[in-house]
Structures are given as C-alpha cells and as structure tokens.
C-alpha cells in the first residue's frame, strides 16, 4: 500500500511538471540565427500558424503535439498586442496581434528556430508582428 501511494504521488508530481511545461506569462525578444524573435521566459522561440485566424486556434490533436500552444498562466490578462485566445478545452493561449502562439517540439534549446518556415505555414513570431493584427473584410476573405 505504501509503495502504491508513493507511486501515485510520483505520477501526480510528474504530470503536474509536464502540464506546466508550456504555460507561462512572460516573453522576451531574443537574437537568433533567424534574426530577432519572441521567446518565452526560458528562451524557447514562439511561432504563429498561417492556418489560424485572428482570435482562433486551428491547431489541435497531432498538430498540438508537434506545436504545443503557449498556454497562459491562470489569471493572465491581455497586455497590449499580447492577447488571450480561448482554446476548445477552455485553456487560454497567448496570441500576438490576435494570432495564437505556439512552440515547436523540434526546438531543443533556447534560441533554436528550427520551426521557422516548416510546411510553409509556420513562422517565428517577430517584434514586427505586433503591428500585424490582420483585419478581414466580411464576405471577401481578403486580409488587409
């Protein structure tokens, strides 16, 4: 019984540690081989997905396994161009200029930008992106 209790406690600790691996409320600018990008407080590069729309994440299931969302800490609030998007599970994901932000599972170390350009739909989030909140004209599908 004691061994079972210790095993269960270890599992809870491990799951808690893993579940918070991509949750944060801080970000920073970093100089990388691909130029200046935004990263989380651990230096891991943040990315945007061209198949998302402002305020809506379209990356779930196997997509989110490869591109974990940048989940906000509980109680986080919008900060200028940095806003929150509600995911289908109710969690809050950080967005820049309305576009949800992600990590790339292929980045192994702080400052890596190996996800930039993947599939022609993933881009490293850059400081210039703050001003790019796309506006869509109803009915046209065009963005300005």
From TrEMBL:
Q: Does the keyword Ribosomal protein apply?
A: no
Which terms under GO biological process does the entry name? alkane catabolic process
Q: What is this protein called?
A: Putative lipoprotein with Yx(FWY)xxD motif
Give the keywords, sorted: Lipoprotein, Signal
Q: Which Pfam families match?
A: Lipoprotein_15
Q: Which organism is it from?
A: Rubricella aquisinus
Q: Where is the signal peptide?
A: 1-23
Q: Does the keyword Membrane apply?
A: no
């Amino acid at each position: 019984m004691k061994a079972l209790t210790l095993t269960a406690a270890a599992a809870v600790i491990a799951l808690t540690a893993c579940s918070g691996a991509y949750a944060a409320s801080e970000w920073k600018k970093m100089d990388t081989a691909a130029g200046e990008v935004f990263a989380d407080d651990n230096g891991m590069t943040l990315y945007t997905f061209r198949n998302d729309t402002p305020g809506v994440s379209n990356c779930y299931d196997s997509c989110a396994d490869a591109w974990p969302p940048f989940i906000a800490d509980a109680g986080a609030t919008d900060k200028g161009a940095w806003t929150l998007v509600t995911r289908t599970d109710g969690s809050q994901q950080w967005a820049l200029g309305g576009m949800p932000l992600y990590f790339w599972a292929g980045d192994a170390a702080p400052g890596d930008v190996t996800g930039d350009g993947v599939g022609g739909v993933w881009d490293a989030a850059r400081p210039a992106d703050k001003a790019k909140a796309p506006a869509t004209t109803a009915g046209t599908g065009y963005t300005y």
